[in-house]
Amino acid sequence: MVSFSESEGSSPAAIRSVLVLGGGSAGLIAALTLKRLTPALEVTLVRSSEIGVIGVGEGT
User: What is the residue extent of each domain of the chain?
Assistant: First the structure.
């Protein structure tokens, strides 16, 4: 969730970079979608090298 603090007469600062934590399906899709919709946005994806690939349906 993103929130901004505003005082009267000011506008929120533009978001220039986003950090996505988690390289699973949701994190990857979020990072790709953000970059596709906002090409100028700097998107960084952080994932754990200790967590292997989990296929669809294997997480439950």
Answer: 17-46
Please list, in sequence order, all residues whose beta carbon lies within 8 angstroms of the beta carbon of residue 26, skipping any fewer than 6 positions away.
none
Of the candidates 35, 37, 59, 58, the residue with the CA atom closest to the CA atom of residue 45: 35
User: What are the pLDDT digits (tens) for 1-58?
Assistant: 555 555 555 667 889 999 999 988 889 999 999 999 999 999 999 998 887 766 666 5
User: What span, in angstroms and rounded, lies between the C-alpha atoms of 9 and 34?
Assistant: 29
Q: Which residues contact 46 (CB under 8 A, 6 or more apart)?
A: 19, 20, 21, 22, 23
Residue 12, both tokens? 């929120």
Q: What is the pTM of this model?
A: 0.65
Contact 41, 15 (CB under 8 A): yes
